[in-house]
Amino acid sequence: MEGTIAQRKVRGRKDIFCDPSTMAEHGGHNGEVFSVVFNKMPFAPGHSLIATVRHTNGLLDLTPHEAAELLSTLRKVLPYVLNKYNGGDPAYDIKIRSGDASGWTISHFHVHVIPRHRAANSGPHPYELIYEPWLDTPDRPVVAGDLRTHTKGLRRGAELNGDGKHALNGFADRRPAPIPSFLYPNVFFESQHFIALHHPEAVLPGQTLLVPKSGVRDFLALNDAELADLMLAYPKVMKRLLREYSEGSRAYITSFQTGGYSHAPLEAFHINLIPRKEGDRYAENHDQMYADIYERNGRHVDMLGREEIRRAVSELRRPE
To answer: Is CATH 3.30.428.10 the classification given to domain 1-171?
Structure first.
């Protein structure tokens, strides 16, 4: 469905991104392809949303032009919120949910850009301290002060000219982090600049890591050739995962993070691709999945065994 669908709802919530009055209330930058707004009920200061102007559902539904514009917009907005709200600390979460089984609350494509804050001892906050106490609660704190004040700088960041490199402000560090050799048996896809491998500690079947061969440590360090290849590699890998694991739900999670997660399987930049289906392990608490992946803190997580992963990799390597 296209156009202005002000009353489109999922689980009782209207599509705010197709509602001009609600978008005006949120404030932000309204471009031709994407709108960039602050989340009125943020998980952390600086929590921003990037949404398509036209109504569309998932990352796989973006046109090539929209996909390229999304990467460009991220490279402009992310440095701004890190400098403004995170003291220049390059720690953040990027999260995208697609499809009803993913746990989204608005069926309109949008990206969460969330600065990852530090605790008083300068270490990373446990994941739960940022998210779990605030999720699905009516009293989650709203942005302090006038949204228009916050939006003024966000608009400047989103409207930067050129390819956004001048906005990176030292974040684009290309020092490589070698990909551990024990992960290579899990590789099932290779493009010019990326490999896809089954997560060695998958919490759901098919959880995959998309990793640049250069081993750069941050999304902002990807060069133009890598970004172009990412736009080609991502849909090939995700469509394969959906055919294998989603049971027709066409629901999936796309997320990447930097900054102090204790259970990250490698230091190099990596994107988590997670196919979802109705009734899977996280159907009752979708956000628990993120805590299990990144900050288990001694909790037992019923992860896939080595033999299960070996069989999954073997299936994923088969020619289509």
So the answer is: yes
Spatial distance between the Cα atoms of 261 and 254, rounded to a whole number of angstroms: 17
Q: How far apart are CA 198 and CA 122, in angstroms?
A: 32
Within 13 Å, how many C-alpha atoms sit on residue 219's CB side?
26
The CATH superfamily assigned to 173-320 is HIT-like (3.30.428.10)
Instruction: Please state which of the ranges 3-17, 161-175, 278-292 shows the lowest mean pLDDT.
Output: 3-17
pTM: 0.83
Can you spell out the DSSP letters for 70-94?
HHHHHHHHHHHHHHHHSTT---EEE
CA distances for 284 relative to 37, 200, 201, 203, 288, angstroms: 28, 24, 21, 15, 9
Distance CA 125, CA 105 (A): 25
Alpha carbons 246 and 234: distance in angstroms, whole number: 16
Rounded-to-5 percentages of helix, strand, coil across the chain: 35, 20, 50
